[in-house]
Amino acid sequence: MFTKTKFASFDLIDDLQKGIDNLGWEYVTQVQKETIPLALAGRDVIGQARTGSGKTASFGIPILNDCKPTGDLQALIIAPTRELAGQVAEELNNLQGDCGLKIITVYGGTDLEKQAKQLQSGVDIVVGTPGRVMDMTKRSFLNVENASYFVLDEADRMLDMGFFPDVMWIVERMTNRKQNLLFSATFPQEVIDAANEFTNEPEYVLTSEEKLDIPPIEQFSVRIGRSNKLWVLGRLLVRMDDDDQTIIFTNTKRMVDLLVQRLKKHRFKVDGIHGDMTQNQREKIISNLKDGNMNIVVATDVAARGIDVDGITLVVNYDVPDDVDSYIHRIGRTGRIGRKGEAWALVSRDDVPQLSKIIATHSLTVIETSAPELPDGVDKDPVSKQEDLTEFSDVYGMVKIGLETEMSLVKLSNFIIEGINCPELAIGDIKSNGNSKSVEVHSKFSSLAVRYLNSKGIATELLE
Fold this sequence. Notes:
The structure is a single chain. Helices cover 38% and strands 20% of the residues. It has helices spanning 14-22, 30-40, 55-66, 82-95, 112-120, 130-138, 155-160, 164-173, 189-198, 229-238, 253-265, 279-291, 301-304, 324-331, 352-362, 409-420, 443-455; strands at 2-6, 27-29, 45-48, 75-78, 103-106, 125-128, 149-152, 179-184, 203-205, 218-223, 245-249, 271-273, 296-299, 312-317, 342-347, 367-369, 398-404, 427-433, 436-442, 460-463. The strands form four sheets. It has a seven-stranded parallel sheet with strand order 5-6-4-7-8-3-9, sandwiched between helices. A hairpin with a 2-residue loop joins strand 18 and strand 19 (436-442).
């Protein structure tokens, strides 16, 4: 990810260069190498960059280099979520060193009057979400007319979340802007069309031939029934070192809450984050993650957009995502700026087609493996493995069991029904080839049926 180009080669103002040096930054990433010189030269730029590739510095350094601490708005940066807006502002403050610029975040879910007072006391750079920036502008707390720089961060997410009408409303009122910088992980035609509405002969910086930037991490998948995903997750978490951090992704808010509850029951220290939580709750969790006070977070895709933490070493897809690009955004939370990282997908039979589609779409190397072994010094699973035959069931939930017996088909059916006390509907087709029989038993009763038959001296096998 890093190049041989140094930040010092950009001839930045002294205070900004000192700020970069104080962060310990020396070499630029690829997107920074291609973007910063163009932006410093005053060109409009449309750049491809995923979270974690150094994109904030790509637009932040040129803006910080040119803005002056006057108290008049000079740059407006729009982000899709409150969390991302806060993180962008935090990084800009860390970068600016002694530049003295006043950088304020403007987003919903917090006290409007407090933000208005901050704006009225003077501001050089505003980082905000579209809705709150619109609101502040309409109320005359924010005057965007004379701002010179406009940045649109994660433009594809803006499109997904329906923000583009608001963005265009804001842009139309920035009548004196002289430079536009737009960044996006992917480039749907709608993003390009919208960008052409407000940019001026932009330079396109498209890394990886317009493909999503795949982090250089190891990727694994484990075929496992739904009932034992928690068992595999427990083994993954118990392998963590004290300074490792993990994000576990689910597809629904309800699953976040359930998984947090189950993990806490098994004595893991964990928090969940999703869109139904208050802004203060989410900010507290992210702050704890950044400060190292929390090492495990369960999240949905939307909520995780605000998690920009360099220390994430493990991403677990507890649910395989419904959208193929979401998988890349998820695993991109680890392996940040060249660090180590692993991504694991827990794959039930129903998930196999979707994971195959994801792998084919992005030409991924995902190693299919079994659940990891317990680490040295741990002799008991944190979560017990359950007997689960659902992976062998068909679309109707029936598991086919093979056995050897002289019993007639009717007698075999009654033998199982009476022995495990199940309803007749739990028994499906029974077929015979001499003494070799196959019987379908609903997955709810299949494990019980196997144990019962084996206890009666009838050996069984599971059939595809």
